[in-house]
Each structure stands twice: as C-alpha cells, then as structure tokens.
Design a protein that fits this description.
alpha+beta
C-alpha cells in the first residue's frame, strides 16, 4: 500500500505545484486527516462497502467542501471511490515529505535523557541546519534510558551520541 500512497501523493503534489498551492494543499490534507483521526467512526463509514460510493463521496463533500480546495476534496473522494481512504494518513505523510523536500525543510527527532533548555534547543537546531543545509523542524523527546547525551534522527540519518551507546561500545571492547 505504501507504493499506492506514494503515487497518489505524487500526483496531488504535481497538481499543487502547477497551481502554486503546495502549502495550502498540505494544510487542507492535515485538516481532513485530523477529522479522520478524531472521528474513527467517520473514517469507518467512508470505507464501508455497505454504503454506496456516491453517498460516501457526498458525505466528504458535505464535510469538507467549505474548508479545503476543490482539488483536495476531489483527491479525497477519489481515494474513497478507489477503496483507499484508509491510506489517507500515508498519502499525507508522502505529500508532506515532498513538500519538505521542495521547501528544503528537514525534520529532526531529537531524543535526550533530560529536558533540554530553550537555549540548548536553539543551538542544536542551528547546528543541524548548518549540517543539513535545510531549515530544521525539531521534535524533542525524553528517554531516560539514554543515561546522557542525545540521539538524533534527521534525513534518514542517525546521530547517536548517547551515553547508553558509548557504554555499550565499551562493553563490546571488554567482552572481546
């Protein structure tokens, strides 16, 4: 299903580029995804084979026509029609990935053993922006099992500077 989601997202993204509406489409997709996530019974209703496709498409139109661009509405209806509405979240993630690449935005997942100060977060983000050459959107998490240091996931790379990893390396050397 990942390939299908990628194809649908790519098609919508190309359309958004033609219209110059990449960010607007991303926001609209997020609006729909939020509604589907917050109301699982609605998502279930839209994927139910017991309800005619035309009725499901009408439900989508009634719910979103005033809130999202026509192309995003049609995209959502197409997913419903083709039986892929359950893959909406995957399509959104693929679209966002394309959008971030276009806008030179990287997303970093930063895991630390303790809460970082605002100053540390700012300096770390600046350093990651210098390394990646992109604007970095950082998401911070705390994992006390790291014992100290950081583990950073950015652009399919892992930077593991955690004390946990360093102790593991020392143990491996001792065990040899």
């Amino acid at each position: 299903m990942a390939e299908i989601s990628k194809e649908y997202a790519q098609a919508l993204f190309e359309l958004a580029k033609e219209q110059g509406c990449e960010k607007e489409f991303a926001m609209a997709l997020n609006t729909i995804a939020t509604e589907l996530d917050n109301t699982p019974e609605y998502a279930e209703l839209l994927s139910s084979p017991n309800i005619p496709i035309d009725e499901r498409k009408t439900l989508i139109e009634q719910a979103f026509s005033e809130h999202v661009p026509e192309f995003v509405l049609s995209f959502t209806q197409l997913l419903c029609e083709r039986g892929h509405i359950r893959n909406f979240g995957d399509c959104l993630r693929e679209y966002e990935e394309l959008y971030r690449a276009l806008e030179s935005i990287s997303t970093a997942r930063i895991i630390s053993a303790i809460e970082l100060t605002d100053s540390q977060k700012r300096k770390l983000t600046e350093k990651l922006e210098k390394i990646s050459g992109n604007t970095v959107i950082a998401n911070y998490e705390i994992d006390e099992t790291l014992l100290g240091g950081l583990t950073i996931y950015i652009d399919d790379k892992v930077i593991d500077g955690s004390l946990h990893r360093k102790l593991k390396e020392v143990k491996e050397v001792i065990d040899k």
